[in-house]
Amino acid sequence: MSDTILSILVLAAFAMVIGAVAWWRRGMRKQAALMLVLALVIAGNVAIWVIPDRNGDAPANSEPK
User: Fold this and answer.
1) pTM for this structure?
2) What is the pLDDT, as a whole number, of residue 65?
3) What domain range is 24 assigned to?
4) N or C: which end of the chain has fewer CB atoms below 10 A?
5) Could you say which DSSP state residue 38 is in?
6) How far lies 1's CA from each of 7, 18, 49, 60, in Å?
7) Would you say residue 47 lies in a domain?
8) What is the predicted pLDDT for the residue at 21?
9) How many structural domains is the chain composed of?
10) Does residue 57 form part of some domain?
11) What is the mean pLDDT of each run of 10 residues along the chain (65 residues)?
12) What is the pLDDT of residue 51?
């Protein structure tokens, strides 16, 4: 289940970057910048869950206790 959620988040981040570029070209700079910030936040959250720690365990792969 978490793999599906993480995949959807990555796709959403890519979609936000594409949308931000489109809005930037139309002149809506503030909204485009906010979308890029949101895409970075989403990417950071996915990275926190996927990147393993010193023991080699990623939080996304651990079982809830």
Assistant:
1) 0.80
2) 59
3) 9-51
4) C
5) H
6) 10, 26, 14, 10
7) yes
8) 96
9) 1
10) no
11) 87 96 96 97 92 78 66
12) 85
